[in-house]
Design a protein that fits this description.
Layout lengths: L1 H71 L6 H11 L1 H4 L3 E10 L4 H10 L16 E8 L3 H4 L10 H13 L3 E2 L16 E9 L8 H7 E10 H10 L6 E5 L7 E4 L7 E12 L2 E10 H6 L4 H25 L4 H21 L3 E6 L4 E4 L1 H6 L12 H4 L4 H15 L6 E8 L5 E12 L5 E10 L1 H15 L9 H17 L3 E10 L1 H8 L1 H18 L5 E6 L2 E9 L5 H12 L3 E3 L2 E3 L2 E9 L7 H17 L5 E3 L7
Parallel strand pairs: 20-21
Antiparallel strand pairs: 1-2, 1-5, 3-4, 4-5, 6-7, 6-9, 8-9, 10-11, 10-14, 12-13, 13-14, 15-17, 15-20, 16-17, 18-19
């Protein structure tokens, strides 16, 4: 009799543990789902900010290139000519954030006095090279527009005398590419509102000299076109329309001394999420530390997991109480039996409302109870599924069965507190569903598992949503081509492959000629149609191993892989020119665009990254534009002039 009473108590307590475990599983699954959705929502905001900063800095590089072209087009540029050139650029309208655009010349010691006299004759009465002192090499800022009070303080400054600026200038000189300095305090900081600053340099070379080697470029250097950025003035307009999330921008590592910019909007109301994104800008790596806000977190907040947990706990204890009453008194057995049945119905409804499938496995006999929801989840009727463990095991995807069985074994051996696995299970219609499978074992006094109870949760929709978010973040919404972020990943991988296989790859930077006229004449819908058709024509030309991407506006980048020599590319380039210039029909109109193509190759004599390879192709494309459009040009170091 005593053993019977003890067994009944153990049974009632075991039921309470099972019901509470079910409530915990239901809460945990829904909580994880909504946390994941909120995390992806936050990441999409951060990707937009990163893309906007990178695009804006590329625009500023083009401003420097136009300055180089203007300088090279004239023997001697006067102060008034440079002022007129900068005014025509309308930097406040089209290049917001630039403190100034200037020219600095490299000097020898004997050239200082003549330059000072020349500049004083041009109207800079107090012009004098500073700081004073004897050095191996000098530089002097001669023009800087717009010439406001801040920029006037920089005229005559020798940037080559300061180590941080000199490092960036030397890198630009040797590479021939636009280069950003590390964090500096600008000479223009003449009042209490001091901001972190950076400078962007593009070298000026003598046109008549060779630029094939670093030694040649050092010999040919005459100066730099450069721009000045106060980071607060630069970033505030760049971020105003894109996001309200707080962020910090660092030069390199996330250290206080490297802080370039810190947004002020809602920074005291930071949320619980954070992410660090690395940007490669002008040869330097910037670290962006972004935070969610309490407002952003609240948009994704839900009480569904908490409601489900409370409901499960209440039902569990109601059932437990019913069992205790039944155990302690048998006077109203029929009434208590009815109450128990009612509670079972409520519990069953609670389980069914979660849409999860319950299973109860006896590891000793290998017999399993599968709930109706479990069977319906896979498209079966109650009578279609038996009670053997093989009914589940035979439906697990073959690629995932071994790993799943290892997770079950680890839990039965007592290595894990719970069993949890995500795998695909075959449905009646032949399709696979993604299932989150969770369970917990009950052990006897010897430590052997005698029962395992758990749930199947269909997370197929969640998985598709996650995949869709990842696809959206890495693909162009109009053409469905990879965007700049995915291109960076794919190009890095392709560079490793061709280098390992002793092959070559080519990067084609394509800009459509006449696209603006199509937009202006026929409207943006027609422009979108042109971009879609151009993307289709590109895909028809390339091989399956090649990469076609749209990085913004009417700009495309194509990566041609597995080349034995660069000459193989010429017939394909001609085909690109021919096919992309063919007429496009839209609403009974015939539209026409052509393509200017810049090409760079990898590997090269020096080790370079994917961003440099793309910038080289961009510069070659710029040369194709200047040469008359609808043609291709291969990258040469003179493209950066």
């Amino acid at each position: 009799m005593y053993k019977f009473i003890l067994d009944r108590k153990l049974t009632i307590n075991s039921l309470l543990i099972i019901f509470l475990s079910i409530s915990y599983f239901a809460w945990s699954i829904t909580q994880n789902y909504y946390n994941l959705r909120s995390e992806n929502f936050f990441k999409s905001h951060v990707y937009k900010v990163t893309e906007n900063i990178e695009k804006r800095m590329l625009v500023y590089e083009n401003a420097l290139r136009s300055g180089v072209a203007f300088y090279q087009s004239s023997q001697n540029i006067t102060r008034e000519e440079w002022k007129e050139f900068v005014e025509n650029l309308q930097i406040k309208k089209f290049y917001p954030g630039i403190q100034g655009l200037g020219i600095t010349l490299m000097l020898k010691g004997e050239e200082i006095k003549p330059l000072e006299s020349l500049m004083q004759d041009e109207g800079y009465i107090d012009f004098k090279l500073n700081p004073e002192g004897k050095r191996e090499q000098y530089s002097a800022i001669i023009y800087l527009e717009p010439l406001d009070k801040r920029n006037m303080a920089a005229i005559g400054y020798d940037m080559f005398s300061q180590s941080t600026r000199r490092q960036a200038m030397e890198l630009a000189r040797d590479s021939g590419l636009p280069t950003i300095s590390s964090r500096v305090t600008l000479v223009q900081e003449i009042d209490s509102n001091v901001q972190a600053g950076v400078l962007m340099y593009l070298p000026l070379y003598k046109k008549s000299l060779s630029l094939n080697s670093i030694k040649d470029r050092r010999t040919a250097l005459i100066g730099y076109i450069y721009s000045v950025f106060r980071m607060g003035d630069l970033m505030t307009p760049a971020l105003a329309k894109e996001t309200t999330i707080p962020l910090e921008l660092y030069d390199g590592e996330i250290l206080e001394k490297n802080l370039l910019f810190k947004s002020s909007n809602e920074f005291l109301n930071r949320g619980k999420r954070t992410i660090v994104q690395v940007l490669e800008i002008g040869g330097r790596k910037w670290s962006m530390h972004a935070y969610s806000t309490q407002k952003l977190d609240k948009q994704m907040e839900t009480y569904i997991p908490s409601i489900l947990a409370v409901l499960g706990i209440v039902v569990s204890f109601l059932i437990y109480i019913v069992f205790l009453i039944s155990f302690n008194s048998r006077k109203s057995l029929s009434q208590r039996t009815k109450e128990l049945e009612d509670e079972k119905i409520r519990f069953s409804l609670a389980i069914e409302s979660t849409q999860d499938g319950l299973w109860d496995w006896n590891p000793i006999t290998n017999k399993v109870f599968f709930s109706n929801n479990w069977k319906k989840m896979l498209g079966y009727e109650a009578q279609d599924i038996g009670n053997d463990i093989s009914e589940w095991a035979d439906r697990v995807h073959p690629d995932e069965l071994e790993a799943t069985m290892e997770q079950i074994k680890a839990h039965l051996n007592g290595d894990t507190e719970f069993y949890e696995s995500t795998h695909r299970v075959l449905c009646k219609n032949g399709e696979y569903k993604y299932i989150l499978d969770r369970g917990k074992a009950v052990f006897d006094n010897s430590g052997n598992a005698i029962r395992v109870v758990g749930f199947h949760t269909d997370i197929t929709a969640q998985k598709k949503y996650q995949d869709k978010l990842e696809h959206t973040a890495k693909h162009d919404s109009l053409t469905k081509l990879p965007n700049r972020f995915l291109l960076s990943e794919l190009l890095t991988h392709a560079m490793h492959v061709v280098k390992r296989n002793d092959k070559q790859l080519a990067v084609l930077f394509i800009d459509l000629d006449g696209f603006k006229e199509v937009n202006d004449t026929y409207g943006h819908d027609a422009g979108d149609e042109v971009l879609s058709i151009v993307a289709s024509r590109m895909n028809a030309i390339v091989r399956q191993s090649d990469i076609v991407s749209r990085i913004g506006g009417d700009e495309f980048v194509i990566v041609m892989t597995d080349l034995n020599k660069s000459e193989e590319l010429i017939p394909l380039l001609q085909r690109f020119l021919n096919d992309l210039s063919s007429d496009i029909k839209y609403n009974q109109h015939s539209m026409n665009v052509s393509a200017s193509i810049g090409v760079s190759f990898y590997p090269q004599s020096i080790d370079i990254g994917n961003e440099v390879l793309i910038r080289q192709a961009d510069q070659a494309m710029y040369c194709a534009k200047k040469a008359g459009k609808n043609q291709y040009q291969f990258f040469n170091i003179e493209d950066s002039m």
